[in-house]
Amino acid sequence: MRAAQKPVQPEALSGRTILDSTAIARIIDRIAHEIIERAGDEHLPALTLLGIPTRGGPLAHRLARRIEVFIERPDAGIAIGSVDITLYRDDLRSRGLRPLAPTVIPDGGIDGRHVVLVDDVLYSGRTVRAALDALREVGRPRVVQLAVLVDRGHRELPIRADYVGKNLPTSAREQVRVRLTEIDGTDEVVVL
Amino acid sequence: MTSSPAWLIKGVRPYGEDAVDLLLRDGIIAELGAGLDVAGAEVLDAGGLIAMPGLVDLHTHLREPGREDAETVETGSRAAALGGYTAVHAMANTDPVADTAGVVEQVWRLGREAGLVDVAPVGAVTVGLAGTRLAELGAMADSPARVRVFSDDGVCVADPALMRRALEYVKAFDGVIAQHAEEPRLTQGAQMHEGVLSARLGLAGWPSVAEEAIIARDVLLAAHVGSRLHVCHLSTGGSVDILARAKADGVRVTCEVTPHHLLLTDECVTGYDPLFKVNPPLRTAEDVEALRAGLADGTIDAIATDHAPHAMEDKECEWAMARPGMLGLEQALSVAVQAMVLTGALDWRGLADRMSVRPARIGQLDGHGQPLEIGSPANLVLIDPDVRAVVDAADLASRARNTPYALRELPARVVATFLRGRPTVLDGKAQL
Amino acid sequence: MRRHLLSAADLDLGDATLILDTAEQIDTALAGREVKKLPTLRGRTVVNLFFEDSTRTRISFELAAKRLSADVINFAAKGSSVSKGESLKDTALTLEAMGADAIVCRHSASGAPHRLAEWVQGSVINAGDGTHEHPTQALLDAYTIRRRLGRLDAVRVTIVGDVLHSRVARSNVVLLDTLGAQVTLVAPPTLLPVGVESWPAEVSYDLDAVLPKADVVMMLRVQQERMNASYFPSVREYSRRYGLDARRMATLPDEAIVMHPGPMNRGMEIAAEVADSVRSTIVEQVSNGLSVRMAVLYLLLGGAHMPDGAVA
């Protein structure tokens, strides 16, 4: 029962690199454009990006920065927060204990907002379900969308992403490891 | 008894010394020498075994009458024989209390019927152990039980005037008062030795001074009235110092220590398992060292078990609710070997002195604690010093299971016990 | 962390910090929410087994468990089979058979939760045992200090009063030492345990000398039954030498806080104007207790059962 150790020096992973830092940056840019387009002028001011810890957090921040660049308003102050879903998981009994991560709801809450949940990998869909449960307790957004860096399939719930960086067919035996500079010291997506 | 067959014990080492053969016949050691050959005698090959006079316990709780669910005279006698004992003193805190000739006689008779050890009842000093009025000590002394040791054990004779009278009164029949030294006002609610550990565990402390203050007082009283005093279950280094001084001053005082106070410390209490709750409490490692030294140099006269059987429900509970006391008869010898012989503090002759000779003298049991020589009563124990075994509470002959030694590996094993020439234990098994 | 929380000594620095961090995350997650309920422990059963009256502690644990959606059973010894002579062991086995995932135990006998832990599969949480320990109280105190002062390391904490009989003091000394704080105990010598010099704490008999160097003053309750047992000559003398009044409070450093585990004897160990001052954290301690107990329940029950000491 210890908080996950965060490696300072990234060690090389012996797997298949799916996305490198350039590819990840390109994907962030594309999703940022898509979010702007789908929200439209009407809802963009109500945009709230909520990262799902751990790696949804940096992704949400990167998206917000790029959106501010693309709409040419670096001071737009897009609302960013995070929703830790650990206390909402339904698989606590079968998995080891997890330390909690911060839940930060931006000032003004999420009522009536255009919320985009941001996560690194979409897999069974249970994390997203838990995030939706968590959001329900916090407030009532006008709309909730989902942005993920990688969709690796194997859904166990009727959930899909609105914005997908890369569709990645995998076997259930494989592991998809996302590393981000803010946490892991490097940007890459590797299949192990 | 005369009808029991003769026993020829071959190759045994009395007190761990040179091997000889022993012939037990007509209740005494009839012959002693090398290469004995006696027609018709049962032969016991005792090569490698050590012989000592049968052990004598000054301090046993047999619980009968009153708590036969915890122990009876019979089950306790069996435990004693298996532990190598040929005589035990049965403490008076039964229900009813052994404070009349009737009760001591009953216990004595039950002991005779069981026939495994000589049961010498201890009489209460005060009526109902209440510490206010002397019991009829003379009547108990004159009864067939021939009581010579009197004790309110479990409670202290705290009133100094009453203690003085008791010490004086028993002189008439050469009795001895065995004091449970515990100043009651200093031990109200006490749960364990008062020290660093009691503070950490949040258990009310039983300070060493509560024992030492009473011993000091009683030694002075005994000197003043010229009486014999025996101090039960010494537990502190300070008590040893007081006794050493008193003996040097010529006071007629004797004392005993329990096996558990020679081996276990208050660290055992850490898990709050009431198996380690005992009165007086387990003390520190320094106290254990001082007690071993006191026993080795003779300041402490005897090892006495304070064998205290308790029903399961009195131990499987919260520490504070549990009754104090632990079993001792069946492991006393092994614990003594571990604490005294293997450490080099006592040789086997010394051990025999502290576990048989002196306790028999203190309790005035003439047939016990006699040297292993021709003509002595054939009360003896044969010990295998070389085995080590892990104690299993389920194997105990005692009705109770509250041994503090469970799962502990201890040395030495009683192979046979003879009471007046008749085996009560053979091959480690009780014969009745 | 181990399966049970029996003593503050069960927690190393990592465990203790994790509990405080978790409490903080729970606080943030619930801040400003109308519905203060989490589904985390749905289907788990928490039994409050109270052999000693303590409405505040019981309610705190009850609410903590309910906010995590656990099923809660309150088993007060009074009026139950326990008062009819049922043993602790039988009670334990009964609760075990009912499938208790956690037993929160308050008992007047030191070590009772230790015994309980030997007889049940579920987690045992010590909610105060005799004069031994009260680990969740120490955790909520540490949490309160950290929130108010922003740190625990090198914080100077003075604990004043009946240390001898106080489970709160015992748990606090152990936990605060683990967390790097410096503890000073202040009491009349009669109310300090033998062997206190081996504790990781300074000892003083002089409250006035200590207060100017204290970041935290924690006042202990003086139990009624001590007042007539010659531990000190009179209530008035105790109050004069060891009570915290406005004059003494004024000698504290500017940022220092005043704590009390409650219930207070106003006018005895603590003056009313001190208890109600801005330095006082007494009300916060109650709400922090809730967060800390939620954290403890989550950390003990939130994962799959693992062998003692296993790291997940």
Describe the protein's architecture and organization.
- The complex is a heterotrimer of chains A (192), B (432) and C (312).
- By secondary structure, chain A is α/β, with parallel strands linked by helices.
- Chain A has one domain (16-191): Rossmann fold (3-Layer(aba) Sandwich).
- Chain A is built from four helices and eight strands, in the order βαβαββαβββαβ.
- Chain A has helices spanning 21-43, 56-70, 126-138, 181-184, and strands at residues 16-19, 47-51, 79-82, 114-122, 143-151, 163-167, 176-179, 188-191.
- In chain A, the strands form two sheets. A five-stranded parallel sheet of chain A has the order 3-2-4-5-6, with helices on both faces. Chain A has a three-stranded antiparallel sheet with strand order 1-8-7.
- In chain A, strand 4 (114-122), helix 3 and strand 5 (143-151) form a beta-alpha-beta unit.
- The two termini of chain A are 25 Å apart.
- With 432 residues, chain B is an alpha/beta fold.
- Chain B has two domains: 7-50 and 376-430, Urease, subunit C, domain 1; 54-363, TIM Barrel (Alpha-Beta Barrel).
- Chain B is built from eleven helices and 19 strands.
- Chain B has helices spanning 73-82, 101-114, 137-142, 160-169, 196-201, 208-225, 237-248, 259-263, 285-296, 332-341, 348-363; strands at 7-14, 20-25, 28-33, 42-45, 50-53, 55-60, 85-90, 118-121, 149-150, 176-179, 192-193, 205-206, 229-231, 253-257, 302-303, 380-390, 409-419, 422-426, 429-430.
- In chain B, strands 1, 2, 3, 4, 5, 16, 17, 18 and 19 form a nine-stranded mixed sheet that branches.
- In chain B, strand 11 (192-193), helix 5 and strand 12 form a beta-alpha-beta unit.
- The mean pLDDT of chain B is 97.
- With 312 residues, chain C is an alpha/beta fold.
- Chain C is built from eleven helices and nine strands.
- Mean pLDDT of chain C is 92; it is low at 306-312.
- At the A-C interface, helix 3 of A face helix 1 of C.
